[in-house]
Write a structure and sequence with these properties.
Helices cover 35% and strands 13% of the residues. It is α/β, with parallel strands linked by helices. It has a three-stranded mixed beta sheet, with helices on one face.
């Protein structure tokens, strides 16, 4: 993502863990200094869809996030709470972090009130759509839920190939 485009999307001075974390994203960070782009919903940071700039810092970040110490700590929501912990309490991570509006790279297929409701549900033009929590909810059919986007992708791909 181009630095100027990222800067236009960045949520500055925003609580890292909603709604009221005392730790906020930096207000002065520039797009070319960001190595980790995340979104957040009503339940916290969204670790399922993120952008990580390739390089030594990315290796460092992944080593910390997947460190056995954090994995064995028994955070209530496993890697999600581990991520929230390291982002809030390790300045080396926070200084390279940018939050962007959720629908930039993490729209949901269905309206889930606890995660942001209609505001974060997919709209035309969104970049990424996820069937969040689908695999855990026996009342939902993940394949059926993703069917409209699969068919749209297929139509777009065929149109592209026929040009």
């Amino acid at each position: 993502m181009a630095p100027h485009r990222l800067e236009s999307l960045m949520l500055k001075d925003k609580p890292v863990v909603p709604p009221d974390s005392v730790i906020h994203t930096f207000s002065h960070i520039k797009g070319d200094k960001v190595d980790l782009v995340l979104t957040q919903d009503g339940e916290g940071l969204c670790q399922e869809s993120f952008i990580l700039r390739q390089g030594e810092w990315a290796k460092f970040f992944l080593d910390i996030w997947f460190d056995p110490l954090y994995r064995s700590y028994n955070f209530q929501k496993a890697e999600g709470h581990a991520l929230e912990h390291i982002v809030q309490w390790h300045p080396t991570i926070l200084t390279k972090l940018s939050l962007v509006p959720q629908r930039t790279l993490n729209s949901y297929t269905v309206n889930i009130q606890s995660r942001g409701g209609d505001e974060v549900t997919y709209k035309d033009g969104d970049f990424v759509v996820r069937a969040v929590g689908c695999e855990l909810d026996k009342g939902r059919n993940c394949e059926k839920e993703m069917d409209p986007w699969f068919h749209q992708w297929k139509r777009d791909r065929l149109a592209e190939l026929n040009r």
